[in-house]
Amino acid sequence: MKKNSDLICTKSLYLHPETLNAFASKIVDMISDDIDTVIVSSVGGVPLASVLSYCFFKKGKSVRFIFLGNNSVEFYKWYLQGSKKAIIVDDLVSAGSLLAVIYHAILKPNGTDLAGIVCIAKTGFPERGQYIRENEQGIPLYCSFD
């Protein structure tokens, strides 16, 4: 059980840059050093993904930053060619369906490993089901707020 002092309130991440930077730095320290791609699946995740990319840069690691916009799946498969290990950043994870689509339609066919999912908040993440789940196949979910 988390103490109130251990909780990071979602709004405080984006209102206080030092809190966002501290959270992102902690995630980068926990994630494998061989990450080469940061994928953002929603507009709300762009600030967090930007700071994560910057934190990788501060550690001497260059990463690709990809925002999944209005291009085709084939375009993103092409764009990810050569990527070995990626993380997906989202603002809110509920059922994990968007993450599963990204994983199964783009990453897996390209041979890109999913090293983790980073989000601001999660709600109702399923224990069992068809979507990517917390710790399924060793894929960790890093979340600032439950």
Quick description:
By secondary structure, the chain is of the alpha/beta class.
Summed over residues and divided by their number, the pLDDT gives a mean of 80
How many strands, what sense, and barrel or not for the largest sheet?
5 strands, parallel
- Strand tally is 5
Give the amount of beta strand, in percent: 15-25%
**Low-pLDDT regions:** 1-8
How are helices and strands ordered from N to C? HHEHEHEHEE
H/I helix tally: 5
Report the end-to-end length measured between terminal Cα atoms: 11 Å
Can you tell me the overall shape?
Answer: globular
Main sheet: which strands, in order across?
Answer: 2-1-3-4-5
Structural class: alpha/beta
Helix percent band: 25-40%
Report the C-alpha radius of gyration, rounded.
15 Å
Oligomer: single chain
